């Protein structure tokens, strides 16, 4: 599904990621954890193809195709989905309009307005999002938690193959977190080969979505990988011991 090899990434000529290597098999769930400023979001947007982040060396292979240099919209069309840490408001574009156009672009299927709206409202019901949000500008006047749920709504409609979640659990209360986890598991049940890369600081979301592998990112380097028991080690000892060892 995804193979990242020796990836070195810079922003404004400042190297942020150093020789990142990570392999995610179809249907696997990976958690990426680390302190603030360690490069987690940089990895997320690089995988999505953000043009401001320059890949100095290394490669990104997705479903057997080298996507290291292709544009973000082609990655999205090929089934890569990024849920943003801080989703932006887009005045003047309604949620329903954007999702209908995105669905058509990704699937090549043109649904009539009534058929698409029925699909959209069913997904909104699953996430307990009021139907009125469908005709509102994207994220305008929404709280942080509402924006995160609207990100999950996009995921439910678009049904990607690779989902990258950049701190989807931040700003959510326990009820909203459970709804987000339910949405992810619903999509994954319909597509068991869908892979998930969860970026998080805490173990909150991993209580609902248990990862197959956990990676600790510090100072732009993956310093340790393991199974879900690594999360317990991080909760108990924090990142400080790894920071000191890495800094030596």
Looking at this structure, what is the CATH superfamily?
A: P-loop containing nucleotide triphosphate hydrolases
Put simply, the count of helices is 8
- Return the CATH class: Alpha Beta
The N- and C-terminal alpha carbons lie at a distance of: 35 Å
Q: What profile does the largest beta sheet have?
A: 6 strands, mixed
CATH architecture name: 3-Layer(aba) Sandwich
Element string (H = helix, E = strand): EEEHEEHEEHHEHEHEEEHH
- What is the CA-atom radius of gyration, in angstroms? 18 Å
Characterization of the model:
The protein is α/β, with parallel strands linked by helices. Helix content is 37%, strand content 29%. The strands form 3 sheets. The protein has a 6-stranded mixed β-sheet with strand order 6-9-10-3-11-12, sandwiched between helices. It has a 4-stranded antiparallel β-sheet with strand order 2-1-4-5. It is globular.
Describe the structure in brief:
The protein is α/β, with parallel strands linked by helices and 248 residues long. It is globular.
What features would you highlight for this structure?
248 residues; alpha/beta; Rossmann fold; 4-stranded antiparallel β-sheet; 8 helices; disordered C terminus
What is the strand and helix layout of this fold?
Elements: E1 2-11, E2 14-24, E3 29-33, H1 40-48, E4 53-62, E5 65-66, H2 72-77, E6 80-83, E7 90-94, H3 95-107, H4 113-126, E8 137-138, H5 144-158, E9 162-166, H6 174-190, E10 195-200, E11 213-218, E12 221-226, H7 229-237, H8 240-247
Parallel strand pairs: 3-10, 3-11, 6-9, 9-10
Antiparallel strand pairs: 1-2, 1-4, 4-5, 7-8, 11-12
């Amino acid at each position: 599904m995804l193979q990242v090899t020796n990836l070195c990434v810079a922003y404004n000529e400042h190297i942020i990621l150093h020789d990142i290597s990570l392999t995610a098999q179809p249907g696997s769930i990976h958690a990426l954890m680390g302190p603030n400023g360690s490069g987690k979001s940089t990895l997320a947007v690089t995988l999505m193809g953000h043009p401001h982040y320059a890949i100095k060396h290394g490669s990104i292979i997705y479903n057997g195709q080298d996507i290291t240099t292709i544009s973000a919209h082609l990655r999205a069309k090929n089934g890569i989905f990024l849920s943003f840490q801080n989703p932006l408001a887009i005045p003047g574009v309604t949620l329903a309009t954007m999702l209908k156009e995105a669905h058509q672009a990704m699937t090549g299927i043109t649904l009539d307005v009534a058929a698409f709206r029925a699909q959209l409202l069913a997904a909104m019901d699953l996430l307990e999002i009021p139907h009125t949000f469908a005709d509102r500008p994207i994220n305008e006047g929404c709280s942080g938690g509402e924006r995160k749920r609207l990100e999950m709504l996009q995921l439910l409609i678009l049904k990607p193959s690779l989902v990258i979640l950049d701190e989807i659990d931040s700003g959510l209360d326990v009820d909203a977190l459970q709804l987000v986890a339910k949405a992810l598991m619903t999509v994954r049940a319909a597509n068991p080969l869908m892979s998930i890369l969860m970026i998080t600081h805490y173990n909150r979301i991993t209580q609902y979505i248990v990862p197959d592998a956990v990676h600790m990112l510090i100072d732009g380097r993956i310093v340790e990988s393991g199974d879900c028991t690594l999360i317990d080690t991080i909760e108990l000892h924090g990142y400080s011991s790894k920071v000191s060892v890495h800094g030596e």
